[in-house]
Write a structure and sequence with these properties.
Number of helices of chain A: 8
Structural class of chain A: alpha/beta
Largest interface: A-B, 22 and 22 residues
Distance between the termini of chain A: 26 Å
Helix content of chain A: 25-40%
Number of domains of chain B: 3
Shape of chain A: elongated
Distance between the termini of chain B: 31 Å
Low-confidence stretches of chain A: none
Number of helices of chain B: 13
CATH architecture of the largest domain in chain B: 2-Layer Sandwich
Strand content of chain A: 25-35%
Mean pLDDT of chain B: 88
Largest sheet of chain A: 6 strands, mixed
Order of helices and strands of chain A: EHEEHEHEEEHEHEHEEHH
Strand content of chain B: 15-25%
Oligomer: heterodimer
Low-confidence stretches of chain B: 358-363, 365-372
Helix content of chain B: 25-40%
Number of strands of chain A: 11
Radius of gyration of chain B: 27 Å
Radius of gyration of chain A: 19 Å
Shape of chain B: elongated
Order of helices and strands of chain B: EEHEEHEEHEEHEHHHHHHEEEHEEHEH
């Protein structure tokens, strides 16, 4: 039996749909109820819904054998996991954004607001740019508008929210999408099952 | 009838699983000529500061000695053993240890005290000695659990690939992290972006897909026709494979097993047991560490992280002792004799003064509780 942690929300539903197409359906999960754990003995899978940020914790600590996590979470938290597949869904970009016409004054320290301090720190270290990172938990776009920061480092999907707040993308840090991740111990004991699921999902992705 | 450990006459339930395992491991290592090595709980901080890359984390617990010198609680054992090792031609020093180390563990990264047991084989190490270390790693893992997997790889294969690609250290690190994460999609993207030969990517994919025993490995590598694999690495694997035929040979090749190339070279391995989410054993050949510490010779070793076994152990309830009560009128010698007699019958006896009512005669508390 493979235990799979799915992120609650649209991304998790999209990936479950891919898994069902790949032959790992679970009728119980498609019923509207408040349960969190769903099992299909026939296909050998047990799914559970968890908060997107918690998926890697469940997988790293072995409560789940497999999970679906965004690349942003993998880069930010650096869990010790196998990253087996790019699911090519939940596609977006980690970007630096700022007011239109922003010019970086390198004679002063840059202030960047972000939910992803590790990713931002690594990005600016690559540029050897002195930066003060301001960790926020949401509404990041507000920071440059109110003068809390010069720029933001955040996920951009369509860019609509940025545009509505007078911000533009200044640079792309890295592409982001959903990834299939595996616990290292589980991979060793369930390698055949995990490799088969990975190969079938790969076929679905094309 | 209670189960007793025959050698010590201690009831089995009084020995924690980690303690039982320590006895078994010590016995195993002694049978192969290893001697126990004891060391201090702390070292000078500068000793670790100079070898931070070797440590699992660069975060170390430090404190000042009474003379102001900065000391560190030991985050690692191998460095301390290597420091004191003396090279003698054609000889190896076989040492084992059981020590607590102090470093951050898990994704939360909080400091923990972790019991680890392991061995180091240092000196003029040849293939026989190397194979013996691998064999003892496998035996150690099986002593922890039969439901275990020892995964191994050879860093010489990676070095051959890096030479072929002609890449510097930064790109090597990028490649290592992708291989260690079995991240084939980003490896594919990196190869495409750098314009590297597609055949090399196929070799990498084949190696990551390969799972076989040491005895099967030379033939499996031959079938892959790795044009860049260096002959001395293949020859070493052939010799080790010959020795493995005399054992159960259960270790499995896994190209994602990687350790820091600044310190490790040759065979590296990791052990996993069902029910524990992270590796419980880690080790390999570390001649490069010796070079960095200005030591001659070669070395290999491994550590078993016994502290992780607590994850697997179900919560246990302490057996409730019988409470033998006495009061102000009791004959204390008689109480002592009574308690001793009951203990000799195998009972757990806790002698206490009955504070509730000194006028009551001394009796077994279990009766007293019922009266109350």
């Amino acid at each position: 039996m493979l235990n799979i942690a799915l992120p609650k929300g649209r991304l998790g539903e999209r990936v479950y749909s891919m898994l069902r197409q790949a032959g790992y359906g679970c009728p119980a999960i498609e019923q509207p109820d408040r349960r969190l754990v769903f099992e299909n003995e026939e296909t050998g899978v047990r799914y559970f819904w968890v908060k997107p940020l918690d998926v890697t914790i469940y997988v790293e600590r072995g409560a789940a054998d497999l999970g679906i996590a965004g690349k942003d979470i993998l880069l930010e938290n650096r869990p010790d996991l196998y990253e087996l597949l790019d699911l090519k869904t939940g596609i977006c970009r980690m970007c630096v954004a700022g007011p239109a016409g922003f010019q970086d004054d390198r004679s002063r320290m840059l202030r960047a607001a972000t939910k992803f301090p590790h990713i931002a720190a690594e990005y600016y270290a690559r540029l050897s740019r002195d930066v003060e990172l301001i960790k926020l938990n949401g509404s990041i776009e507000l920071a440059p508008i109110l003068g809390l920061s010069d720029v933001i480092v955040d996920i951009v999907e369509t860019g609509k929210t940025l545009a509505e707040n007078g911000l533009v993308v200044l640079d792309t840090v890295c592409p982001i999408s959903a990834r299939l991740v595996a616990n290292q111990t589980a991979y060793r004991f369930l390698r055949k099952e995990i490799d088969t699921l990975t190969a079938k999902l790969q076929e679905e992705i094309g | 009838m209670e189960n007793h450990n025959r050698s010590t006459n201690i009831p089995e339930e009084s020995i924690l699983p980690e303690e039982q395992l320590l006895f078994r491991l010590r016995n195993l290592y002694r049978r192969y000529g290893y001697r126990m090595y004891r060391m201090s709980k702390f070292e000078k901080y500068e000793f670790y500061a100079g070898n931070k890359d070797f440590l699992a984390s660069d975060r170390i617990i430090t404190f000042h000695d009474t003379d102001g010198e900065l000391l560190a609680l030991k985050p690692d054992v191998t460095l301390s053993i290597v420091k004191s090792a003396q090279f003698r031609p054609l000889q190896v020093e076989r040492l084992f240890y059981q020590e607590n180390v102090y470093r951050p563990f898990g994704s939360a990264g909080h400091f923990r005290e972790m019991l680890q047991c392991g061995l180091e084989c240092i000196g003029d190490l040849d293939y026989y000695g190397m194979f013996e270390v691998l064999f003892l790693a496998e035996q150690s893992l099986r002593a922890v659990s039969e439901d275990s997997v020892l995964s191994f790889s050879h860093l010489g294969l990676l070095k051959g690939l890096f030479r072929k690609l002609g890449v510097g250290e930064a790109v090597q690190m990028q490649l290592l992290s992708l291989i260690a994460a079995r991240n084939l999609h980003e490896l594919t993207a990196l190869f495409a972006a750098r314009g590297w030969e597609n055949s090399l990517l196929q070799d990498l994919q084949a190696l990551l897909g390969l799972s076989c025993t040491l005895a099967q490995l030379p033939q499996a590598l031959q079938a892959l026709s790795l044009s860049w694999a260096e002959e001395d690495v293949l020859e070493e694997l052939r010799l080790l494979a010959l020795l493995s035929r005399h054992t159960e040979d259960r270790a499995l090749f896994d190209f994602s097993v990687i350790n820091d190339l600044h310190y490790y070279n040759g065979l590296v391995f990791q052990g996993f047991i069902r029910g524990i989410s992270e590796k419980i054993l880690s080790g390999g050949r570390y001649d490069s560490l010796l070079r960095r510490m200005d030591k001659k010779g070669s070395a290999a070793g491994f550590a078993v992280y016994l502290g992780l076994l607590e994850q697997q152990r179900k919560p246990q309830t302490e057996p409730e002792p019988v409470h033998l009560l006495y009061d102000g009128n009791s004959d204390l010698e008689a109480v002592w004799e009574r308690a001793d007699g009951l203990r000799n019958q195998g009972k757990l006896i806790c002698v206490e003064r009955n504070v509730s009512d000194d006028s009551e005669p001394a009796e077994d508390l279990r009766k007293e509780v019922r009266h109350a």
